[in-house]
Amino acid sequence: MDIKKNDDIKLNIEAMTSEGSAVGHYNGVAVFVRGAVPGDIIIAHIIKTSKRYCIGIIRDFCNKSPSRIKSDCPVSEKCGGCSFRNMTYSEELKYKKSRVEDAVKRIAHLDIPVKDVIGADEINRYRNKAQYPVIIEDGELFAGFYAYKSHRIIPCKSCLLQSAVFEKCLDAFSKWVKSSGVDSYDESKGKGLLRHIYLRKAAATGELTACAVINGESLPDKETLIGELKKIDGVKSVCVNINKENSNVILGEKTVTLWGSDTITDILLGKRFVISPNSFYQVNHDQCERLYSKAAEYAALTGGETVVDLYCGAGTIGLTMADKAKAVFGIEIVPQAVENAKINAGLNGIKNAEFFCGDAEDGAKELEKRGVTPDVIILDPPRKGCSRELLDTVARLDAKRIVYVSCDSATLARDLEILNPLGYNAVEITPVDMFPRTPHVEAVAKIMKRNLKEEK
User: Fold this and answer.
1) Any bridge partners for residue 53, and if so which?
2) DSSP string covering 57-120, please?
3) Confidence band (pLDDT; 50, 70, 90) for 452?
4) What is the pTM of this model?
5) Rounded to 5°, angle at Cα 270 from 267 and 273
6) Of 78, 121, 243, 448, which is least surrounded by CB within 10 A?
7) What's the rounded Cα separation, in Å, for the pair 286 and 391?
8) 328: part of which helix (H) or strand (E)?
9) Residue 214 to residue 258: CA distance in whole angstroms
10) How many CA atoms lie within 13 A of 439 on its CB side?
11) Considering the chain, what percentage of its residues have pLDDT values greater than 70?
12) Distance from C-alpha of 286 to C-alpha of 398, rounded to nearest angstrom
């Protein structure tokens, strides 16, 4: 390799990676640079080399890209959250579409049309959930986000992605910290009490839950915290989540309500949903409605179909489709979410939906044993995608259509390649920008049983 550490090289920025780093090539070697934009020509200072790639930082600009804009966040260069705050939104959407296209071609080896990304009307203040890691020093609370690829906290009380009311909640926690004298969790020692501050807001109703994630069994001076949070409009629930595990998992399994309701209620596509702290719920309300509307379009329900909703969470996707289905069966591994799903069905007067607690693989097998023959299967797996065993079971269930909602285009592409020889063709993919200014992109795939004519 011709490049050495501390070299300064001229670099044309060509593209972005899935993690939001810019990349260019120097004498055939990939060089990754945070904060650069495709079209930039920079002087890169090399800070790390390996056999296959190098990492650099921007030393200077030779020419700035037409897509470059000034970041409107004072900590975006330090925080690991917003990779695209220095890029026009139109360019960001182009990148996200190309990322899905690249995954399909490179991993799935399939020729599947990828539609333009469904972009967001609002690219700031869209997140309805925040999980702030914290540090307490000399009685002062510092909450924020981790720096890129580290557990070093960058204090940021007013994140432009988060709901503005969350800043008031952090102020309430700060007053409680001073009053109670609690300390923060030190993950290297496994000691200290306060690990995270977890906030969730229902966009349609304004209801809000505030949760302290602690390495312990109880919260000192809880009356002060409750009193401060109750002053904030919309706060309906104050709770504590107990997580004494030595891991980077944010929430533990046990949540105790200190004041108010165990859940908050949101409205999505005309349906009411109760949400508990441990339930999965999409963080961008408006884009979630667009995502689910596209999923419903691909499901093409006419009123006589049986729908199986794997990884159903609080039942949101299946229940928003229930009016046009004969029956809906939901499978979810988180017990709290299953209880939420059952409540949500009753809350909306939906009587044709049934929910089971268990992992997706065992749930699909149980439906197979019961002789359930789905017409449509909804797959909405975590980032790791579906297991081979699950996809084999899905194929045996012999549904006419599969709608795959993905938060990672690489695992989506892998699973589409597995489904293809099992008799299922992906005929179209639509990306949806659920997380503007970050490198993440969701996608919905329409998958048809082979030899069935695609419905127009």
Assistant:
1) 30
2) EEEEEEE--TTB---S-TTTTTBSS-SSTTB-HHHHHHHHHHHHHHHIIIII-----BPPPB--
3) low
4) 0.92
5) 35
6) 121
7) 30
8) strand 327-332
9) 13
10) 18
11) 99
12) 33
Residue written as tokens 């004969």? 326
Residue type (1 letter), 306 = T
pLDDT (average), residues 239-248 = 93
Compute the C-alpha angle 398/333/100, nearest 5°: 60
Q: Residue 308 to residues 289, 302, 312, 315, 431: CA-CA distances in angstroms?
A: 20, 15, 9, 11, 22
Q: What would the pLDDT profile of 137-190 be if each residue is shown by its tens digit? A: 999 999 999 888 888 898 898 999 999 999 999 999 999 999 999 999 998 899
Report the length, in residues, of the chain: 456
Per cent of the chain over pLDDT 90 is 84
CA neighbor of 450 nearest in space, from 427, 423, 421, 422: 423
Quote the CA–CA distance of 419 and 426 in Å, as a whole number: 9
Rounded to 10 deg, the angle between the 222-230 and 165-180 helix axes is 150
Token readout for 428 is 């179209």
pLDDT over 70 (residue 455): no
Q: What is the DSSP string of 133-148?
A: EEEEETTEEEEEEEBT
The catalytic residues are 407
**Which token pair is 445?**
């795939």
Helices (H) and strands (E) in the chain, counts: 9, 22
Q: What is the pLDDT of residues 357-398, one digit of tens each?
A: 998 888 888 888 888 899 999 999 999 999 999 999 999 999
Four-residue CA torsion sign, 25, 27, 29, 35: negative
Going by their DSSP bridges, the two strands 22-26 and 41-49 should be labelled as unpaired
